[in-house]
Specification:
By secondary structure, the protein is mainly alpha-helical. It contains 12 helices and 6 strands. The strands form 3 sheets. Strands 1-2 form a two-stranded antiparallel ribbon. It has a two-stranded parallel sheet with strand order 3-4. The N and C termini lie far apart (about 115 Å).
Amino acid sequence: MRLGSCLIYAILFAGIAPLALPSQLVSQEPDARPIAIAADNFPGAIPDAPQPQIALAEALPPSQQTQTGQSQGVQPPAQDSTPAQTPAAQGSSSSQSPAAQSADEKSLHEKAEEQLKAQEHQRVMGVMATFNTTTNKDALPLTPGQKFQLFFKSSTDPWPFLLAGVVSGIGQADDSYAEWGQGAQGYAKRYGAAYSDAFIGNFFGNAVLPSIWHEDPRYFQKGTGSATNRALWAAASTVWCRRDSGKWGPNYANVVGNLMGAAVARAYYPASERTVSDTINDGLTVSVEGIVGAEVIEFWPDIARHYKKKHAEKAARLAAQSDAQSAAKPAPQTAPQDQNQK
């Protein structure tokens, strides 16, 4: 910027200097002195009124008119400040555009944060957390930090701990992984394994891999259409997802994340379960469980509305029966006023 300003000033100076030279030469020539000398030769005469510059210019010879016009017409360059201000104006505009862009990015980030906060209050039956679900089809994409925030919120909610307790209880009853035994120790091992499976799978499938592959870890609820289309939509969410660009594509993060979680889990499972087939089987099992969860999330609002409608109809029916019974009761008879007086 400084080098450009210096060049602009040099060009202006080179163009203005030749224009300023004639005015200096005209001011040094003795051609304008005879008028003053003629007035000095007649001291008793009344001095004439000052003549206008136009009349004075007309009285001069044509060569002097040209020089005088140049000396009067050329003014100090008033446009020197304009080129000097142009780089500054361009610099200010260029500095404002990144500021406006950063402000827009900040507003979008804040709006996405508000949408994420609203999702953290979603539950099925008031217990099952559905933080990874959104009903907004135009939801803004999440940043990597927001994806990790969503994962942490989902993993530390009471729901995954309660679900791990149910799964470990079923495993205890079936005596799965007999090497872990029974009793409190066996239940604790099964409980730790169940929660670790969910935590590790969500860590890779909902945070790490979606951030790397720019995939959205949320389930976009359809909410409209026929039951068949909605069921297929929910089932396909395991292998098909929305990307940060707004387009849709294969859900690599979910499938690969489940397999990676199952592979890491081999470290704390019994030695007899540390095979490739067991790893693939567990990863696919988690994917199927995700399909079941998506189906529940998709149709739960319809179930809740149906229940509320039936409850309201039942309440209205009971209220109508109560009003009919109260209307059917005979009104209490009262004695005439004259008899009461007697």
